[in-house]
Amino acid sequence: MHTKIASSLHVAIIGDALGVPVESTPRHELSLCSVKNMLGYGRYDHPQGTWSDDSSMILCTLESLLRGTYDIEDLGNTFCQWIFEGHWTPDGYVFDSGLTTFLALDRIRNGGLSARNSGGTSEEDNGNGSLMRILPAALYFHRLPTGEFIERIHEVSAITHSHPRSLVGCGIYSLLVKELLADGNKKEALRRATTEALDFYSARPEFKPELSHYMRILSLDLPQLPESEINTSGYIIDTLEASIWCFFQHESSYDTILSAVNLGLDTDTTGAVAGGLAGLLYGIDDIPADWRNSLARKDEIEMLIDRFAKHVASRQ
Ligand SMILES: [Mg+2]
Fold first, then answer.
1. Ligand 1: centre distance to CA 257 (Å)
2. pTM, two decimal places
């Protein structure tokens, strides 16, 4: 359990860093000159191993959850420390953040709102900004019964992303994480996760209309689709589909995150979200040592992940 949790978080962060230099590059350009290694510079002109908002918010979540019991206000404030003070950034500066996330955290820091009421609620607030950081919550709450588990995941998403579509997307991903922790058969895990999601959401009128947006996942058709059907914009549906699709095309963490990044556009987030799934199942041993070693603040990250994995693995 400890190894699975630690590997999942670690591969997510490596997937983010692998995608940063080519973020926003279209797929047809990457098909001519694909990413094969952990690169430096490129899109944001940062050295090799630089990770972005996805990892910053994952690390903030680990830190907050390790302070004691789950406290949504503490989590919201920790995100504010990141975006306004550069906490858990590679070098003290935030270079990549989404508008919905910024506005929500601004409502906490400068508007005095509770983290329970801060998230964006409009249809335009369905970027992948909460999906990219939901992994630690899914790991932390995985032993809760399904209904309670989904409620906690929704709360954590809603700090920044509160529209039902974002809540359902985070719910489906987190259920898949929960099921993969229980059993390493990914087909079975997806089947169970989608059944649970359909049972939960179709019984709730506020979520039921959103299910149509997730039908390619819920119908179990997604893994069989050709690459040309897979989109990788910053929209939560695209990121969730692309990540699950990559996870089903490959049998290793290395291949999963490389293929996720080479799908183009929101490369770092697709890499992080797919990496979380791959790390759970395939571990981190096939990731080249120099990729791991290149990560900014590597030692601090490894220590935090280790503490979190130990804490979660030891909880009943
Ligand atoms: Mg990013």
1. 14
2. 0.98
